[in-house]
Design a protein that fits this description.
Elements lengths: L1 H4 L4 H7 L3 H4 L21 H8 L4 H6 L16 E5 L6 H10 L7 E5 L7 H13 L4 E5 L17 E5 L4 E2 L12 E5 L2 E2 L3
Parallel strand pairs: 1-2, 2-3, 3-4, 4-6, 5-7
InterPro entries: F-box-like_dom_sf (IPR036047), F-box_AtFBL13-like (IPR053781), F-box_dom (IPR001810), FBL60-like (IPR055294)
Organism: Camelina sativa (False flax)
Protein name: F-box protein At2g39415
Length: 192
């Protein structure tokens, strides 16, 4: 009975030992650098840019701190979205637009409900989107007058303008040759 408990003789201790394949230490092999990249980062830039277009521009820019791979991905997103709910700063918007590289923009959303933003800033942001051949333009603003360049654009397919005080009064010919959907919410429409 004493032999079964293990009194130091080899016969009993060897029966209690772990099999040799459990005792081996796993040796570290050299890591494959591809294992360090997550699956999302391995996607092509075009797909990452589409993914980033579904979130706010401010949030998309924060992805640039993830890694070198993500540093400039946001610069080519097909859509930009700015809202004064996110502490919109005119100088930071100008800086973002200066780093934006695509010549074609799918959508541009500008939601400025407060009066603290100067009209020239907003006019330049709208003009920027129109110069990039924006297809879907969404504006929520407090502009009282819409500038003349706004009425001459051949790329806009969908236009949404929401304003309690805006006066849509084209003093020039309107040339929206691609426009399919026009929504004016709360605007004063004056046709002469």
């Amino acid at each position: 009975m004493a032999d079964n408990v293990g009194n130091g003789d080899r016969a009993t201790t060897s029966s209690v030992r772990c099999p040799s394949h459990y005792r081996r230490r796993k040796t570290k092999r050299g890591r494959d650098p591809r294992e360090d990249i997550d699956l999302i980062s391995s996607l092509p830039d075009e797909i990452l840019q589409v993914i980033l277009s579904f979130i706010s521009t401010k949030l998309a820019i924060t992805t640039s701190v993830l890694s070198r791979r993500w540093r400039h991905v946001w610069c080519d997103t097909p859509s930009l979205s700015f809202s004064d709910n996110c502490n919109l700063d005119p100088s930071s918007v100008d800086k973002i637009l200066s780093r934006y590289t695509p010549r074609k923009m799918m959508s541009f959303q500008l939601c400025v409900r407060s009066l603290k933003y100067d009209h020239p800033y907003m006019y330049s942001w709208i003009k920027f989107a129109m110069c990039r051949n924006v297809e879907n333009l969404w504006l929520e603003h407090r502009l009282h007058d819409i500038p003349g360049f706004f009425y001459n654009n051949s790329s806009v397919k969908q236009l949404y303008v929401k304003s309690k005080h805006a006066c849509v009064n084209p003093r020039c010919s309107v040339s929206w040759t691609s426009l399919k959907i026009l929504t004016l919410d709360g605007c004063n429409l004056i046709l002469c």
